[in-house]
Amino acid sequence: MSGMNWRGIWAIYQFEMMRFFRTLLQSFVSPVISTSLYFVVFGTAIGGRIDQVEGVSYGAFIVPGLIMLSVITQAISNASFGIYFPKFIGTIYELLSAPLNFLEIVIGYVGAAATKALFIGTVILLTASFFVEIQILHPLAMVAFLLLTCLSFALLGFILGLWAGNFEQLQLVPLLVVTPLVFLGGSFYSISMLPSAWQTVALFNPVVYLISGFRWAFFGIADVPVGLSLLAIAGFTLLCLGVIWWIFRTGWRLRS
Amino acid sequence: MAMVELRQVRKVYDSGFEALKGVDLEIEKGEILALLGPNGAGKTTLISIVCGLVMPSSGSLMVGGHDVVGEYRAARSLIGLVPQEISLEPFEKVGNAVRLSRGLFGKPRNDALIEEILRRLSLWDKRDTPIRALSGGMKRRVLIAKALSHEPEVLFLDEPTAGVDVELRRDMWEIVADLKARGVTIILTTHYIEEAEAIADRIGVINQGEILLVEEKASLMKRLGRKELRIELAEPVTALPETLSDRSLRLEEEGRMLVYDYDTSAERTGLAKLMAELSAAGLSVRDVDTRKSTLEDIFVDLVKQQEGAA
Question: Most CB atoms within 10 A, among A76, B231, B267, B275?
Fold first, then answer.
């Protein structure tokens, strides 16, 4: 891989991260506030009535789901915006005229978006630790799930950003598809709390596998077998990589 | 070996529009070529293909001996592009934006060079200013700085002076002269004949996706420098008087109009003498008018030839 333009990748990565640091206050404060709000509303108000889910206090139970919720939305929005914005304002010309191949562009943008999502996930985890006692039974699995989620959804976001022809389309998929899937994916409840018919429906939601596996890494409890969860997230990452590869081969939406 | 070499380059967009119809073009190292042409002639498409923004439908393009498609890394490393549209990240600081460009081209960080470029373009004081706070002319300077930041050997300037003030235009011409002295090859597109006149070595005319001519500036300017004196006579004549026969005069409009071609760049145009000779020959003049052949006339002529040949 010595033929790769690593300086170019680094330049993209740095530039994208600078955008993030320019709005550090917003990047840092907004997840802290929203997480705190979730704890006030769900943890305290609802948690006061639910008490425990499968032996874990409700406040702690929602932590993995909350992290996933933010990480997934942030990875998608950062990556999609990161590549859409240059398309929108025209600075993409420089990227296309530089001695960079598509893979290098992807590594730069997706790497930066995944880093931001990881940062926000960590901030939420730390914030949550002020509200509830958190145990992490399988720290390695926890990190693996977190990294794969950051990466795969940043890839998905990149694809969305390439596909989107306007700002409405840019927000359409996250709004109409991703947010409902994440909310219905068991962020705030266990699938076993649903009526059995809905449990079957829930199994068609890919996010269920993610949150279930992530929660297992924390508390050792899961809605679906953890192996299946790993398989699902690995499969999703591969799918995104496959689409990226196809775009790479065809030059879709980048060069006329 | 030519620095830039295009062979039978065609581009048909998905819409079916044929933007380039088999363009051949060779540009030598260190040369400044001005591409003139009306809007939609294919100037920007041509530049975009060489720079990697648009894929050619067929034909071959070499820059510095490297195929633009097959060896895009080697080819693009040599090329700097100043686009026509002002496309800049509004929230980024000037210095960072210029450094990013150098990084994208895989060049190691060089703050001394960036400083030199920013100073040269009067941008050094603005290095920490967000781009959105700059005037239009300053933004164009940033585009130039970005293109120069990675030390290109071939520089494309797409309508660099469209809508810029006189000061920037002068600066730009000076920079172009500097770059040429360092052996940089420069291709610029323009609407303005004065611009081509000021800086180009050769001038290419492009229309409807075809290169109509590529000519040394000097010879083209000679053609552009021709003027016509039209003398309307009070009384029509059937033939030129004997005394005027050695002059290159034409009779038009049934003997009512005398037409005299002359070269404004010549030391003596002989206009005063001609008027004296006319009056000596007993011809009374009702009116005089002059017409300069413009770039537009040349376009019209060339387009007519193009259509006639088709």
Answer: A76
**Closest Cα partner for B143 from B205, B176, B94?**
B94
Of the pLDDT bands very low, low, confident and very high (cuts 50, 70, 90), residue A19 is: confident
Interface test with B, best of A5, A13, A88, A93 (most B CBs within 10 A): A93
**Burial, A25: exposed, middle or buried (Cβ in 10 Å; 0-12, 13-18, 19+)?**
exposed
pLDDT in tens, A125-146: 998 888 888 889 999 999 999 9
Q: Which CATH code is given to the segment(s) B226-292?
A: 3.30.70
Of B52, B74, B105, which is closest to A96 when you measure between CB atoms?
Answer: B52
Measured between alpha carbons, how far is B204 from B226 in angstroms, rounded to an integer?
A: 19
- Of the CA atoms within 13 Å of residue B188, those in its CB half-sphere come to 29
Phi and psi, residue B34, nearest 5°: -105, 125
Ranges in chain B annotated CATH 3.30.70: 226-292
Q: Does the complex come out with an ipTM higher than 0.95?
A: no
Which residues are CB-contacts of A235 (< 8 A; sequence separation ≥ 6)?
Answer: none
Give the CATH fold of the B4-222 domain: Rossmann fold (3.40.50)
pTM value surpassing 0.95: no
The answer to whether A93 contacts B79, with C-beta atoms less than 8 Å apart, is no
Chain A nearest CA to B45, separation (Å): 10
